[in-house]
Amino acid sequence: MRLVDGSKLLELQNTPVNIRNICIVAHVDHGKTTLADSLISSNGIISQRMSGKLRYMDSRPDEQERGITMKSSSIALYHAVQKQEYLVNLIDSPGHVDFSSEVSTAVRLCDGAIVVVDVVEGVCPQTRLALKQAYSENIQAVLVLNKIDRLILEMQMTPLDAYVHLTQVMEQVNAVMGELFASQVLGNEETKIDKQETKEKPKEDNNFYDWTSALEDADDSNLYFSPEQGNVVFASAIDGWGFTVHTFARLFSEKLGVKEEILRKVLWGDFYLNSKTKRFMKGAQEKAKKPLFVQVVLDNLWNVYETIAMRNEKEKVPVICEKLGIKLTTRDLRHTDSRIQLQSLMMQWLPLSQTVLNMVCTKLPSPKEIGLEKVEKLMCTKICDFQSLHPQTQELRKDFLACDSSERPLIVYISKMFSVDKSVLPENKPKALTAEEMALRRERARQMREQMKLNEVNSQAIPMTEENKDENAQENSNDAEKEDNQPAFIAFARVFSGGLKKGDKVYVLGPKHDPSRILDIKDFRVDPNKKLKDLKSDEHITCAEIKSLYILMGRELEEIDEAVAGNIIGIGGLDEHVLKTATLSTTTACPAFSELQSAAVPILRVALEPANPSQLPQLVKGLKLLNQSDSCVQVLLQETGEHVIVTAGEVHLERCLEDLKNYAKIPITVSEPIVPFRETIIEPPKIDMANEEIDSQNIDKGNETEVDPVLTVLTNNKQSRIKIRARPLPNEITALLDKSTDLLKAVSQHIKSLHGSSKNENIENKLDNLNINGTHELSDRMLKLIEAFIEELKNISSKLGPEWSNVAEQIWSVGPRNCGPNLLLNQTPDYDTKFLYHKNELKEDPRFEYESSFVNGFQLASLAGPLCEEPMMGVAFCVEEWSLDKIEGEDVGHTFGPLSGQIMSAVKDGCRKAFQVQPQRLMAAMYSCDIVVDQKVLGKLYAALGRRGGRVVGSDLQTGSASFRVQAMMPVAESFKFALELRTHTSGLAAPQLLFSHWEVIEIDPFWRPRTEEEYLQWGEKWDGVNRAKAYMDAVRARKGLATDKHLVQHAEKQRTLSKKK
Ligand SMILES: Nc1nc2c(ncn2[C@@H]2O[C@H](COP(=O)(O)OP(=O)(O)OP(=O)(O)O)[C@@H](O)[C@H]2O)c(=O)[nH]1
Ligand SMILES: [Mg+2]
Question: For residues 482 and 498, what is the distance between their CA atoms, to the nearest angstrom?
């Protein structure tokens, strides 16, 4: 039975100082949901006995079935510490890599995090990611070291071994924190140096260098987890117990006759009790003494477990109970299962929920304590800093900091939309009947019965009375309801400032909303009737009315009338205004919050089709709902008309399909997974496939002639001549381009806006405009970022030899989509372009008008390469000449179409051909794969990896256990059903975590055939082995309906005779 009702929670909502918004984060299966169960049971929502078994926060059937969490969900809990009452909004998040975007949506709304670590497995990849996510969102964390029971029962460690093991796990966690901290401080230092250099030149002589690093000055005292500070809980969520060092200090201070404060300081660490002097001394390890933690804490714990769970000495249970001052019920005392006895005993002695909630309320900040740094981070994006925001927007900072509901502008952030069945909504639930209503019903039923009797006697048809007419109508309406049992969408939101009431009208600001663009427009108005689907591409604001507000209670929702700053709430009725994330505000000056960071890159795609073609509209509708309800999935309609969804991995894909089934309610056919590839070129190889050096005489030239790497193309009307050469980009440059996507996109956009205006206006006007109109100028931060980019690029290129030395000046465009890892370089002697060195200058060159067509040609070419129409990567196209003759006659334009189009297609063609004369290669997407396996099945794992073209990059023995942690790389294309295969081959002893890592060149030439004499010798003239690269390429080509060189029937005659003979 619930111990606290909704009205108490409502009351607490109004005092933000007493609210804690927290999320539980950890690696998969470390026990988050089990811990949440325990906390929920403290509120009586589920019974204590069921906690740990129910996994209440896993409300979806597939979550229960698979035993992993897939969506993050929130529950409001009540807790009291020393008469002070608190409202704790607890969010349970998934730990599987595929769902890491769900963790981002949870972390964004919180002020604190509980990091759970399985002490047997230690720090795992997702633990690291979760810590990083929390750190980058400026969220304070506390630590729960979970599954300590496994150390006793499974690993059978001695208390001393366990102590050493626990210190090691603590060290691992703190090492991650230290790394995060150091990288941030050093990053800050770098930007600071930039700033100083630009502002004032150093006065000192050049020989002087300041070696003191910012790292030494930075304060990191609050950063680390340490048991003596009370921010670490030792726990076993499944058995329902947990304690901090402070708990034991309180329990044992009297017994030991020591003050609690002193005991807190010495209980953890290298202290021991000197039995002669009765004093605590340092140096337990050195002197081979028992550390105090072992003596006071672990020994007792082990004692209880060994007696009850291992030796099953029932008679000793009452003795232990008495010692610990606990009363067990007779039912528990008589229980045959010793584990249950143990659980009830431990739950009373060291209640987990009390310990954890106490720690949450005392160690984690309230919404009121939101820091300046966090606020500024929320308000800014990567390429704009706080100073460059509009003054009106800057003003809002103090509202964020105040976290106040009185007369402040409303700011609400929606981090995701989740769907619930309409029947779950409180307004649709059947209401409990009052006593009068029940009496009325009884009376009606009695009348009906009598009437029936009468009818039987008269054997007449039942006349339609008023009442049963009513009921028929009700049934009809029920049918109608069933028909539109579309899911309802609830926004998962947090109020950062101001208050929100039902019926309020607010602005819904999309994630691309930029206040500075509209604040200076006079009479800017938002059309109140527009919905999300009516907006044009540059509009991001709609108006919406708040239809309903809810407190989130895990599987249930509770309706409320208003919500104030500091709370996590659900908002209904925004389906048509919010796609995935949004900001609600009463002012348009409110910025869109910075983008959510997620580690999982959507990479796995499948095409979908309704089993019955006529049901396409349902599928489209279902896909739309899926897109809205999942923060990570991408739903695309390809040019071929295929409906495609892109997901983070197999588990995510399965969940999406499950959802889609619910939304669309039709049978759907799902294609085999489609894996993306990239196309690239490499430096000509020096050795051939038979590992022999290629020299000029060796090659069988056959009918091949040496091809000139510089391609010359002409436009159809011969007016323009272009010379292009393709070259492989050095890896370092590709990596830099990949890293700077945001910046490059912003630069491209800026350049586009310059070009765009130049077409319409004449040049003088344009120049004036540029100087006056601020929007054409780049912000200070952008300029700095560009400078830093150029600096880095120059640094790299200086090491690469003379041909790359001027690359920064030569960049004309990046592609595809204006931000990719390919370059268009301008190496013409007479045409000027500026990409990074953009100035507000315009050229009188006649070619200038066609520049954007030229660049577009390159964009198209790099978007779809000649191998199998996949995007290119790491290719530089050097334009060595571009000439444009004067137009001779008017009619030329008519025959071949406008010149801009001709230039575009000529450039595209040129790029593709220049690409083709170089050695071409495919690039495969690679997963980094982290697997913890038992020693016994290590061999099987290696075999499975080998079969799938994976390679092991590292493996080490887990401390204190018999399992190995193996890191490997594996092509995404080969990864399907890998998890399943491993699970079956290793009887569930190995579970891989796959995360997209990078693109890797497949070394084999897709067009390879034996050419040198050695190769003829080795492979024979007509090689018919399997070429992996060609197989991939042909599969993609076949899927896209492109020509392949596969001969279906080679010798038709022969085959026929063969079959005849049979
Ligand atoms: N021995 C032991 N097992 C535990 C403990 N806590 C949780 N487990 C078990 O660990 C498994 C995973 O627990 P969950 O709570 O579902 O883990 P989770 O972190 O929520 O997992 P995801 O949501 O999938 O990331 C379950 O089988 C639990 O019974 C514990 O303290 N001791
Ligand atoms: Mg879970």
Answer: 38
Please compute the mean of the pLDDT values over residues 938-948 and round it to a whole number. Answer: 87
Token code pair at residue 728:
């492989």
Q: How far apart are CA 347 and CA 239, in angstroms?
A: 7
What does the pLDDT read at residue 655? Answer: 92
Smallest-distance ligand from the CA of 153: 1
H or E element: which one contains 1019?
Answer: helix 1013-1019
The reply to whether ligand 1 has any atom less than 6 angstroms from the CB of 124 is no
Task: Bin 588: left if φ > 0, else alpha if -120 < ψ < 50, else beta.
Answer: alpha
Nearest CA residue ID for atom 13, ligand 1: 31
Q: Is the CB of 102 under 6 A from ligand 1?
A: no
| HEC assignment per residue over 731-775 | HHHHHHHHHCHHHHHHHHHHHHHHHHHHHHCCHHHHHHHHHHCHH
Q: Residue 57 C-alpha to ligand 1 middle, in angstroms?
A: 13
Q: Is 26 in the pocket of ligand 1 (CB under 6 A)?
A: yes
* Polymer length in residues for the chain: 1062
198 pLDDT more than 50? no
Question: Relative to the CA of 237, which ligand 1 atom is closest?
Answer: 31
Bridge-based pairing state of the strands 232-236 and 140-146: parallel
Atom of ligand 1 nearest to the CA of 147: 31
CA-to-CA distance for 862 and 908, rounded, in angstroms?
A: 8
Instruction: Check residue 753 and give its pLDDT.
Output: 73
Closest residue by CA, ligand 1 atom 12: 29
> Which residue stretches of 337-465 are H helix?
338-349, 352-363, 372-379, 391-402, 435-458
pLDDT for 423-458, tens place per residue? 778 877 766 667 777 888 888 888 888 888 877 666
Span from the CA of 146 to the centroid of ligand 2 (angstroms): 14
Residue 9 confidence class, pLDDT cut points 50, 70, 90: confident
Burial class of residue 270 (count of CB atoms within 10 Å of its CB; 0-12, 13-18, 19+) = middle
Ligand nearest to the CA of 66: 1
Question: Does the Cβ of 71 fall within 6 Å of ligand 1?
Answer: no
> What is the rounded distance in angstroms from the CA atom of residue 506 to the CA atom of residue 491?
14
| Residue 141 bridge partners (DSSP) | 113
Distances (CA, A) of 846 to 883, 885, 959: 10, 9, 70
Residue 644 has what pLDDT? 92
Q: In 61-158, where does DSSP find H-type helix? A: 61-66, 100-108, 125-136, 148-153
For 35-70, how does the pLDDT look when each residue is reduced to its tens digit (9 = 90+)? 999 999 999 888 888 888 888 999 888 888 888 899
Q: What is the CA(94)–ligand 2 centre distance, in A?
A: 5
pLDDT: is 964 or 71 the higher one?
A: 71
Burial 768-783, CB ≥16 within 10 A → b, else e: eebeeeeebebbebbe
pTM of the model: 0.84
Please state the atom number of ligand 1 nearest to the C-alpha of residue 67: 16
Largest CA distance in the chain: 118
Which phi and psi (to 5°) does residue 448 adopt? -60, -45
More confident residue, 962 or 859: 859
237 CA to centre of ligand 2 in angstroms: 12
Q: What is the mean pLDDT of residues 1014-1040?
A: 79
Q: Tell me if residue 139 falls in helix, strand or coil.
A: coil
Three-state secondary structure of 147-178: CHHHHHHCCCCCHHHHHHHHHHHHHHHHHHHH
Instruction: Determine whether the shortest distance from the Cβ of 238 to ligand 1 is under 6 A.
Output: yes
920 with 1003: CB under 8 angstroms? no
The H or E element containing residue 720 is: strand 720-728
If you write DSSP's letter for every residue of 834-882 in order, what string do you get? -STT--S-----GGGGGHHHHHHHHHHHHHS-TTTSPPB-SEEEEEEEE
Task: Indicate if ligand 1 lies below 6 Å from the C-beta of 237.
Answer: yes
Quick check: 1058 pLDDT over 70?
A: no
The closest-lying atom of ligand 1 relative to the alpha carbon of residue 36 is 15
